[in-house]
Structures are given as structure tokens and as C-alpha cells.
Amino acid sequence: MSYAPGISFSIELITPDVLSEGLEQRQVDMVVGLDSQSALPGGVVQTSWMDEELVCLAATHNDRVGNALNIGQFADALHVELADISGLRPSNIDSCLVQHGLTRRVISKNLNYIAAAQVVALTGAIMTLPRQMAERFVMMLPVRMVEPPKELPTLKMTLIQHGLFANDPALIWLTQSLIEFAGTFRQEASSGERRPA
């Protein structure tokens, strides 16, 4: 970023400690991309950031899964998912399935997307994730994208910071820059353009 030459990024696992002490003690300035449904500690400020379409990944050799899934086929499939560190709420996907009288069988819970995608590549399971991440995994691993049931919700991602630092000029700049990026990304996606991975 030529307009912020001193900026640096660190990727951390989003744990309850990061969301509370990490933000409050300014060990972490901002959590980017957390699902809006996530349980949050007091004192944090959550800003809507970006809605992301969900898709499924299946191994290229997985002939039990077609190019699209209805809600029943989705529930019947084996699943790989990201572990919810807090364990406080069911996922949006599980809540959606319950509304339709369905459940799913999760065979593997993983702490990061790449590990989960590798499990999918080696098994007959599927994984549900944001489209832009799935597009990258299709280029890296022997997996393919599968259209999920239309009933699945959109992933609503947020920006989270501690209220004590909400007026910090650097965080205001970072928030505005990320919101502008999300707007540019939405425009490109709606016009059919995609940035190279």
C-alpha cells in the first residue's frame, strides 16, 4: 500500500482471547471478516463490512456430489467445517438446516480454511465457504466448486475493534480503506470482473 508505507498485517486465529483482551489491550487493532452472528465481548464495536456468497467445495474425484446441491442432498453429504473457537452458537448453516428439519454430519472440524480444503480434497466430504476463497482453492488443490442450496444464507462479514480506540485516526483510516475495498469488490463482482487470484 503506497499510501500507508508503515502498515503491517498479522494473521491470527480469532479466539475469545483475541476478541476480548487482544482488542482491549491493543495487541490486535482490528478483527477483519468475522461472521456477524459471532458472539462478541462487551466494549467492542462491530461494523458491517462485506456480504459474501457461499459455495461448496468437493474433491474432483467425488462422484457422489454433482454440480449443484438441493437442501436434502446438502444435509445428506459428509461435511468439513471450520471449528467455532467460542462454541457458543450453532453456525448459520446449521441454523438454516434446523429450520428445514434437517441436520448434517460433520466429519472434520479445522482451525483454518486451507487445512479444511485439504481434507475435502482427500475425502468424499464437502465444505461450505466464501466463493472468493473457493476460487483460490480450485487453483491450488484437486477440488471443484459446487453450487449450494439456495436456502443457505449469505455470509455477513464484519470489522471489529475495541470501543476505546474507535476514534484513533489510524483505525478510522483502516476502517474506511477496508470499506472502500469492499465497495470496489462488490462493483467488480456485479459487473462480472474478478481480480486475479
How would you sum up this structure in a few lines?
The chain has 197 residues and is of the alpha/beta class. The chain has helices spanning 16-24, 71-76, 92-99, 113-122, 131-140, 169-190, and strands at residues 31-35, 44-52, 54-59, 78-82, 105-110, 126-130, 143-146, 155-162.
Question: Main traits of this protein?
Answer:
197 residues; alpha/beta; D-Maltodextrin-Binding Protein, domain 2; 2 domains; five-stranded mixed sheet; three-stranded antiparallel sheet; globular
The portion of residues forming beta strands comes to 15-25%
Task: Kindly provide the radius of gyration, computed on alpha-carbon positions and rounded to a whole number of angstroms.
Answer: 18 Å
- Weakly predicted, low-confidence segments: none
Largest sheet: 5 strands, mixed
CATH class of the largest domain: Alpha Beta
Mean pLDDT score: 86
**CATH topology label of the largest domain:** D-Maltodextrin-Binding Protein, domain 2
| H-E order | HEEEHEHEHEHEEH
Structural class, by secondary structure, is: alpha/beta
- The CATH architecture of the largest domain comes to 3-Layer(aba) Sandwich
Strand order across the largest sheet: 5-4-6-3-7
Individual helix count: 6
According to DSSP, the number of beta strands is 8
Shape: globular
Structure description:
This is LysR substrate-binding domain-containing protein. InterPro entries: LysR-type_TF (IPR050389), LysR_subst-bd (IPR005119), YidZ_PBP2 (IPR037402). Residues 5-180 form the LysR substrate-binding domain. By secondary structure, the protein is an alpha/beta fold. It has 2 domains: 16-51 and 155-190, D-Maltodextrin-Binding Protein, domain 2; 54-146, Periplasmic binding protein-like II (D-Maltodextrin-Binding Protein, domain 2, 3-Layer(aba) Sandwich), CATH 3.40.190. It contains 6 helices and 8 strands, in the order αβββαβαβαβαββα. A 5-stranded mixed β-sheet has the order 5-4-6-3-7. A 3-stranded antiparallel β-sheet has the order 1-8-2. The longest helix is centred in the C-terminal third of the chain and has 22 residues, at 169-190.
